[in-house]
Predict the structure of DNA 3'-5' helicase.
Amino acid sequence: MAAVTLSFVQPCGMCFAGRRLRNVIVIEAQRGSWKRMRLSNFFFSQVWKVSYRSKHKFPDNLLERVEKSATARLENQSKLITKVAALMEYDNVDDVFDKKSDEKVKEELELACKRFPAITLGYSPPVELYSKSKSSKETNSILKTPTENSFLPTPMHLGWLDPDSISGTLSSFCPEVLNVDSSNLGEEISDGSSFTVQTLTSEVETTADDSAAQLFLSGTIGSVPGLSKRHSYQLDNCGFHTMRKLLHHFPRTYVDFQNAHLDIEDGQYLIFVGKSPVFQGEFSFLEVIVSCEVTGKDRTPENMSYSADDKGGKTFFLHLKRFFRGARFTWQPFLNSIQEKHRPGDLVCVSGKVKALRAENHFEMKEYNIDVLRDEDESSLQAQERPYPVYPSKGGLTPKFLSDVISRILRVLPANMDPLPKEITTTFGLPSLHDAYTGIHEPKNLDEADLARKRLIFDEFFYLQLARLYQMLQGLGTKLEKDVLLEKFKNPVLNSAYIEDWSHLTKCFLNALPYSLTPSQLSAISEIIWDLKRPIPMNRLLQGDVGCGKTVVAFLACMEVVGSGYQAAFMAPTELLAIQHYEQLRDLLEKMEGVSSKPTIGLLTGSTPTKQSRMIRQDLQSGAISIVIGTHSLIAEKIEYSALRIAVVDEQQRFGVIQRGKFNSKLYGTSIISKTGSSNSDDTSKADLNMAPHVLAMSATPIPRSLALALYGDISLTQITGMPLGRIPVETHIFEGNESGFKEVYSMMLKDLNSGGRVYLVYPVIDQSEQLPQLRAASAELETISKKFPNYSCGLLHGRMKSDDKEEALRKFRSGETQILLSTQVIEIGVDVPDASMMVVMNAERFGIAQLHQLRGRVGRGTRKSKCLLIGSTANSLKRLKMLGKSSDGFYLANIDLLLRGPGDLLGKKQSGHLPEFPVARLEMDGNMLQEAHIAALKVLGDSHDLEKFPALKAELSMRQPLCLLGD
Ligand SMILES: Nc1ncnc2c1ncn2[C@@H]1O[C@H](COP(=O)(O)OP(=O)(O)OP(=O)(O)O)[C@@H](O)[C@H]1O
């Protein structure tokens, strides 16, 4: 079969109309019309015009033939074209396409090309695809010559080009010509200069060098076999700088191919087996047609040889678009290799997404896989029935192109590239890294893809955990310290200090509490005090549902530190909360007995008067203040501490990881500076002086354990699971915000107020907005509510009020002077008014589930039975709100929120911005694996604290985890 090569022709003495007709034929040939059942309308109209204008005798006859050809057999179409050529006074079709060029024709053709963008202009010699003019040996020798050796001269690499191995390995490669993807990649191969394949060798079995293999992923994309310079550049521009980047471009999804059946519908992903190409004559570069016979029964080796007609089936024609892209694909050795690979009548397996063409039983496939089947046995067919990965495109690079490049890399992926010790992969039932990459990109079935994904998720989590733990170990001096730390992570239950071991001050404070601690609080503080006694800075997250009593646990931790002669800083996210904590602590200290000198406390917020704030700073520096409570002001530049040992960060999610880190390092730095030249504490050892303060972070938005681990990795987690005795769960009611809904809400409010309760009314905005008139506003409704409940006084609290006014409003509500508090979400965190018994949330759908749970936590903090009324603006919004009615468990709701909104929304901007990226893992689904990864990381570090025993792992770690991710 000879391929048509398009050149511009200059037949002598041809009339203008004749030239036009000839051009039309050229265009049709370029578009692939030689192989099309239906000639294009363009061709049809041109033939008509030419025939008519040139007053040829045959117009009717010709048009009739053309018309017929629309449904004629393909051979007849070919004949028609030949006939047209003859009428144009050419001896045969080939003469139409001679090699001379003609500027005028060229111009015309260029014009035509503009109208028909599918046409690719170019000059090229005719190519004999199937002339067998070159032997395979010759092909090999040609392939050996252009070498641009860049990476890994491993035998595996080279096996890629071994002509014998090609047939075996190329089954999934498209098009399957010497692994050179002609559809997308090979345009520049024609000049030979940019052909970047490796030297061919037969030593395929030689053992590859381990360390080189492990460095494979960091290899530049210049090492991707057969990649042209232009494509390397494009990939590089889109951020694919290394093999790893490319291999980590994971499929978006997999399509499950079905075997072709009789009732094909547009858009289906199907597998066909058929003969390629159907033409024995010439064919275009742009399109190959494969004829496939579908019998209507399942394809089996037995029925494959039957013709479709025998079984009442159909013959389908698949138009494989962009088979070889354009006329530039003419590098002779390459074409010879095509010739070797594609023999007319070859049995091929084609899979892809079908698009129906106008002609019956004709389908177009733009993205496809085509595999030549060596024989008709079942195994080769079965191999094709695998999930088809669908890739996302990136920066203008098509999914097909990316998948082809990835496919190339997979062909040369060293088997021994896994940095994970075998023991780990075996223990956790994970495939090797090589198998994971192959499994995710070219899975044989969905189970394999799943397993591969598991391994890749494991890696994402594992390296994060490893990095964080590794960094912690690096901060410790002796092997013993490191062992102790690892042991602590392995057996967290062992680590709690009995009350007898607590400082005298802590015990006295405990006795001053008006209640006894719940078992959960007790074990939390025991764990924390155990940590505080270690010469290693603690980094602990104290979690608990709203109102479970975290604050008192944090106070006890501060007492323990102060009891040992150090200072404590307690940072709250809002002034309101700082004041509340301050007052609470002050009251408790007042009641404390049995200590000669009570700890001195200070309050430092943005609103603290300058003079007072200067005094507090001085006292902190001199050590006169032992516990300071405040807001961000505590981490201001000018603050210096005398002997800071613990930093409590309340509602830590409000601060963000970076801020927390700054706080940490700030305290560390200043504590050293401030200690220089002054010794405040008798038992301050030299080592202690240089120790960073312990950090106790508290979270009232329960973060699912998985998320916490992912966020902090090294952080120890303490959870308060129970609620103080006597708490009655808050009843939650959902209402639609219509007239009847409000009527009911107001009547419930009145009932509660009449029985001595206090009501929070929470609004999404302060003032009414013209843009969002449906939102109820706190200020705007003050008057309405006051009128509605004339026997009760109302207060207003929102973020724009002055600090003193806010404090006053809250004080009045707490004392009972006001019974209704109209507020915005400023009260969401931490506000503690035990007598408040009802919370009404307007436009509740505007808040997240975790946020609503927080708001709900403002009531039910005392012994009164409390209610939370959520008013949704529309009936639609009620569905999500109902979830809150079903559960009062903050952890459960946080998990639901994580599932519904993802970690970003759950954590809020500040925090989610520092969430490490997990390209494969979804925390909400795969969180459990974090725990496994954590255990694995502990195991590895237990074996080798500095990872010296695992050099590959260490190298991989440094590659994966830049320090900015590891801490602040
Ligand atoms: N063991 C206990 N028994 C009874 N009451 C307790 C106990 N522990 C704490 N409380 C009280 O419960 C209320 C809530 O405590 P606290 O403010 O510490 O909770 P929290 O977990 O910090 O809540 P939030 O998440 O809202 O900040 C406070 O009034 C506190 O005095």
User: Anything to note?
Assistant: Residues 486 and 938 are 7 Å apart (CA to CA). The chain is about 45% helix and 10% strand. The two ends are 67 Å apart (CA to CA). The first strand starts at residue 253 and ends at 255.
